[in-house]
Write a structure and sequence with these properties.
Elements (H helix, E strand, L loop, with lengths): L2 E5 L10 E2 L10 E7 L14 E5 L6 H8 L6 E6 L3 H6 L2 E6 L5 E4 L4 E4 L7 E5 L1 H7 L2 E6 L2 H10 L3 E5 L7 H8 L1
Parallel strand pairs: 5-10
Antiparallel strand pairs: 1-3, 1-6, 2-3, 3-8, 4-5, 4-11, 6-9, 7-8
């Protein structure tokens, strides 16, 4: 399996382990984080771009499978607010590939892996978002209100990931951020 780090920074020569900035049970050291090739499509976006990512999983109900398929025959659906469309188009994204020998999984569903050592990427590539999503059979959907899909994530039986939601642009979440 290939492991990657995705960034809009093209000048990372060495990845240094960093402290975990959120609550991860059992993760108390410093780590270099990587994402699996299976889930890397969820990260081909500017760092703070909020997104909701859905996949059909082993526990997805038949009703939810039918709802998912109403968007077309895709491996994954990624919802992003329209306010981010230009930023996504204008941002150059780099894919850093790691040798996976020092990494171990910490969240299989999300595709997260960590290493406790310095890591030097073995390859750096500029990615073309549209091309990579097409190759991965992923549909990108721009929406007016992403919070609707964030709520649906918890109400449905999809395998999902809600990423960088604190950066939502909708007025509803602007109120939440001010609290």
């Amino acid at each position: 399996m290939k492991l990657y780090h995705i960034s809009d920074n093209k000048n990372i020569e060495i990845f240094e382990p960093r402290s975990v900035n959120k609550s991860w049970p059992g993760l108390y050291k410093q780590y270099v984080w990587a994402i699996s090739s299976e889930m890397v499509h969820n990260y081909y976006f500017p760092r703070n771009c909020p997104r909701v990512c859905w996949m059909i999983g082993p526990n997805t109900s038949e009703d939810d499978k039918n709802y998912f398929k109403s968007f077309g025959e895709f491996k994954s659906l990624i919802f992003v607010e329209k306010a981010w469309e230009k930023t996504i188009e204008d941002t150059i994204i780099y894919r850093y590939e790691f040798d996976n020998k020092n990494f171990y999984p910490v969240d299989y569903s999300a595709g997260y892996y960590v290493s406790e050592r310095e890591e030097i990427p073995k390859l750096v590539e500029i990615i073309d978002l549209k091309e990579e999503l097409k190759k991965s059979n992923v549909k990108l959907i721009f929406v007016e209100d992403l919070s609707k899909y964030q709520c649906e994530s918890t109400e449905r039986t999809f395998r999902f990931s809600n990423i960088r939601m604190k950066f939502l642009e909708t007025s509803k979440n602007e109120i939440i951020r001010r609290r």
